[in-house]
Write a structure and sequence with these properties.
It is built from eight helices and 20 strands. It is of the alpha+beta class.
Length: 392
C-alpha cells in the first residue's frame, strides 16, 4: 500500500470526526436553549377535518339539581274533596238483623278525597295554578299546598275545559308566589331531556327525569280523547297529573297527564302550547269557546262506498245532535260530506280542524252527497256546548 493512500484515509477520518463534533455541538447548543422538540407522551394527535371543532358530549343535563331547586317552589300539591251520591238503604235492610235498634242510616252522600299536582304561573300580574281538569272535576273543595307553607290554601276554579283536560285555579292569598315560565312545545325535539315534578301517591315533590320519546301521540282514556300528546319515559305515576314537564332550562313544555297500565316508561303530557291557546278563554270566560257543527261521523271506506254506489271519499254522518247547527241546516244521518269551503274532507279529523279554524258565527259551505246527488248546504257555526264534549 502506498503512503498517499494511507494519508488519504487519515484525512477522511479527520473530516468525519470534525463533522460529528460540529453536529454534537449544534445539538448541545439547541438543547441548552430549549430549541429541541419536547418528547410526546403517547401517540401524536393529528388534527383532521373530522376531529377539528369537536365537543365533548355529556349525557344528561348536569344542572338538574339547580334547576329543580329553582322550580320546586312553584309546583303545588292539590287535594280535592268530591261529594258522591250513594244509596245505603239496601245495605241497611240486609244488615238490619245484625244492627242495634238505634243504628243510624248513613246519608245519601259520601265524600272521597283525591290528590294531584299543579304549578303556578303569572298572568298579567296575577298568580294562577294550572292543572288537569280531571284532577278537580266535580270537586266541592280544593286545597293547594305550597312548599314551606304549613297550612293548605283554599283555591277556586277560574275556568275548566273537559275537552282539553285543562283547568285554571286561583289561590285565596295575598302573598307573592314564585311562578314558572312557559316554554314553546313546538320547538322541542325527540331525545331532549325532560324533568317531571309532582306528587305521585302523595309523595311530595318527587323528581323524575327522562327524554322526549315521541310527539303528537293520539290517546283515548276513559272516553276522553287527546289528539296531540308528548310521550316521555320520565316516570309518571298517579298523583303526577297536572304537574309540569320541564325542559333542561326549567321552562314548562308540558302538563303531565297520564300513564298506561300496559307498559313501563310510557308517560304522556299535554303540550304547553295547547295551554297557551286556551288560557285566555279559561281566565276571562271560565271556559273554552269553540265553534261546532254538531254531527258524529266516520270516514268513508271502499266497502261502504260500493254498497252506497258513491265515490270512496268524504265522511259519513252517523248521527246529528238535536238543535245543533247541522240539524238547523238540514243535514241528516247518511249524508256524506265531501268538501268544506271548497277543501276536500278526507277524515273526521280534517273536518274538525277546518271547523276549529273558524269563529262562532261564521258560515261554512258544505258539499254533501245525498241519495247519489250532490248538494251544497250552508251551516252557521255556533258555540259548542260543554256537555257535548262528554258524549261518547
Amino acid at each position: 500500500m502506498s503512503q498517499n493512500s494511507g494519508s488519504g484515509r487519515v484525512n477522511k477520518a479527520l473530516i468525519l470526526l470534525i463533522f460529528l463534533l460540529l453536529v454534537a455541538g449544534t445539538l448541545y447548543i439547541m438543547y441548552m436553549n430549549n430549541m429541541l422538540p419536547q418528547k410526546a407522551i403517547g401517540p401524536a394527535k393529528v388534527d383532521t377535518p373530522a376531529t377539528q371543532n369537536t365537543q365533548t358530549i355529556v349525557i344528561g343535563p348536569s344542572d338538574i339539581p339547580q334547576m329543580v331547586e329553582k322550580a320546586s317552589p312553584a309546583v303545588v300539591n292539590i287535594q280535592t274533596v268530591v261529594a258522591t251520591s250513594g244509596n245505603y238503604q239496601d245495605f241497611y235492610n240486609y244488615y238490619a238483623p245484625f244492627l242495634g235498634p238505634d243504628t243510624a242510616i248513613p246519608g245519601d252522600e259520601y265524600y272521597s278525597e283525591a290528590q294531584g299536582s299543579g304549578f303556578i304561573i303569572s298572568e298579567k300580574g296575577q298568580a294562577y295554578v294550572i292543572t288537569n281538569q280531571h284532577v278537580i272535576d266535580g270537586a266541592s273543595e280544593i286545597n293547594v299546598t305550597i312548599v314551606n307553607q304549613k297550612e293548605p290554601i283554599k283555591a277556586t276554579v277560574v275556568g275548566e275545559d273537559y275537552e282539553s283536560d285543562l283547568a285554571v285555579l286561583k289561590l285565596e292569598t295575598g302573598q307573592s308566589l314564585q311562578s314558572l315560565e312557559m316554554g314553546d312545545s313546538d320547538n322541542i325535539k325527540v331525545g331532549e331531556w325532560v324533568i317531571a315534578i309532582g306528587n305521585p301517591y302523595g309523595l311530595d315533590h318527587t323528581v323524575t327525569a327522562g327524554v322526549i320519546s315521541a310527539k303528537g301521540r293520539p290517546m283515548e282514556i276513559e272516553g276522553r280523547i287527546y289528539n296531540n300528546l308528548i310521550q316521555t319515559d320520565a316516570a309518571i305515576n298517579p298523583g303526577n297529573s297536572g304537574g309540569p314537564l320541564l325542559s333542561a332550562s326549567g321552562q314548562v313544555i308540558g302538563i303531565n297527564t297520564m300513564i298506561t297500565a300496559e307498559g313501563q316508561g310510557l308517560g304522556f303530557a299535554i303540550p304547553i302550547n295547547t295551554v297557551k291557546d286556551v288560557l285566555g278563554d279559561l281566565i276571562e270566560k271560565g271556559k273554552v269557546v269553540r265553534p261546532y257543527i254538531g254531527v258524529w261521523m266516520r270516514v268513508m271506506d271502499a266497502q261502504t262506498a260500493t254498497r252506497m254506489n258513491v265515490e270512496n271519499k268524504g265522511v259519513i254522518i252517523q248521527s246529528v245532535i238535536a238543535g245543533s247547527p247541522a240539524a238547523k241546516a238540514g243535514i241528516t244521518t247518511g249524508d256524506i260530506i265531501v268538501k268544506a269551503d271548497g277543501q276536500d274532507v278526507e277524515s273526521p279529523d280534517s273536518l274538525q280542524s277546518m271547523v276549529k279554524s273558524k269563529n262562532v258565527g261564521d258560515t261554512m259551505e258544505l258539499e254533501i252527497v245525498r241519495s247519489g246527488q250532490t248538494e251544497t248546504i250552508k251551516v252557521v257555526l255556533e258555540e259548542k256546548p260543554a256537555e257535548t264534549s262528554r258524549q261518547p
